Amino acid sequence: MATRSVNQRIAASAGIVMASILASRLLGFLREWTVAHQFGSSAVTDAYYTAFTLPDFVNYLVAGASLSITFIPVFAKYIAEDNEDEGWHVFSTVISSMVLLLLILVVVGEFFAPALLYVIAPGFNPAEQAHTVFLTRLMMPAQIFFYLGSILSAVQYAKGRFLIPSLAPVIYNLGIILGGLLLASTIGITGFSVGVLVGAFGGNFLLQIYGARRVGARFTPNLDLRHPGFRMFVKLAVPIMLALSVVFSDDWIIRWFGSYLAPASITWLSYGKILMRVPLGVIGQAVGVASFPFLAQLYAEKKYDELNRTLNTTLKGLLLLIVPVSALTIAMSRPLVYFVFSHTRLRGPDLNATAAALALFSVGMFAWGAQSILARGFYAGRNTLRPALIGTAVTFLNLPVYWLLVKPLQFKGLALASSIGISAYAIVLFVSLYRSTANKGALEMVGFFLRVAAASGVGAAGAFEVVRWIEGRTSWQTTTGAFIVLIAATPAGLILTALAAKLLRIRELDAYLKSIPLLARARRSHG
Predict the structure, then answer these.
(1) Taking the model in full, what pTM does it have?
(2) What digits encode the pLDDT tens for the residues 387-396?
(3) How far is it, in rounded angstroms, from Cα 508 to Cα 514?
(4) Domain boundaries, given as residue ranges, for the chain
(5) Model pLDDT for residues 57-94, shown as the tens digit of each residue
(6) Rounded CA gap, 123 and 133, in Å?
(7) Residue 451: other Cβ atoms inside 10 A
(8) What's the CA angle centered on 25, arms 19 and 31, to 5 degrees?
């Protein structure tokens, strides 16, 4: 009963996060669509996307993107011990000390941007380098707002409040879109960079102050660096700060190699990966974010068997959703890209290149989603070192793969190498986690994944045949034509996937369908 209660709470929380992430991802797509509509794909857009690399790296150095992972276990410990006041003291210590460090890094990044950008994108010509440096310096201060927003969101997650933190990327994306629409005609692509600053300040900082106050956050500036809670936080954060996990470094590596390729290669890869991240974020990120506070709480309460069962159920639910979606995305990548980007400055070669990148990135979609759950299995147990070591090892071992594939396949080789790297990372994480936690569901999970993959393959093959049949008989390369292809192929793929799942006896499909409130009510009304 307890496990079912936790799973229901995770499902309810995931529903909230999914809805907000769906809005965020749709706005994120609209953001990239606006860039494509205003500027297409060129050296200018390559400079814009590359300009995110150094600010992202500064945020990575202080583990800003991982604050919900490194701080929630610390805060959950004090809540479990009924000592919340001490938790808020540690909260204040983390903000005071880490923002001070971040300010120093931002100043250093601003000053040394030209030299650092030469390392990040050595293939750019001097004009492209100068443009990238300007945009980088403009966006660098946004990292302070991101960091503060992350820790303010973390305490809301720890308190079981997901709505306001989930709105941060929505506001952020709106800021970028409005910056581009309102300012691009006068200051060019710099308008989008101004939008980055405005969106980060509004969504990641101001809104999260309001959300944190609602859960009773108390901030008292201090530098109590010897406090046991702060030391625990540092112990969890340092491995992430020092590691070069493939999860974070993949974009940097792609941009480094991409700077040597034909102009627009980085942009094609960026568009393809952003499209892949729409379903990935809605499914994988939502499940990961929603499940982590509950996993951390179960660990703090020493309910290890229940933690394993919850982890298994959560991972199965993720795979059951994301594997069919990834397979169908691969099968329908061309009409999908034509549908969303036809009314932009992108032309046929750009659209076909973006579709190829999308298909190859989607090969690893399941792994991107799975690693977010598996890594959090370690983090819930206050172990950030092992995922960091595994991720760093996979990154360095995968570097030759990027190099070997980029030569014959150009930008497509980079997308394929990305999927190979993240898949290797997810597999090693899975083996390591299930061994370390003595989780007895490993073999069952492997069998489950293989059956879901087989069913998804059947559905994707059917959808691809429908796509090929329509493409061979109509002029589909318009928004309307591509939409007709998608409308015809998607139901065929889903029906074949469901039938194959029945034949392969994937019993979990019925269980998860029954857990969806709308379907459950429909069954009862007809029952």
Answers:
(1) 0.79
(2) 889 999 999 9
(3) 10
(4) 19-242
(5) 888 777 555 666 778 888 888 887 888 899 999 999 99
(6) 14
(7) 19
(8) 140
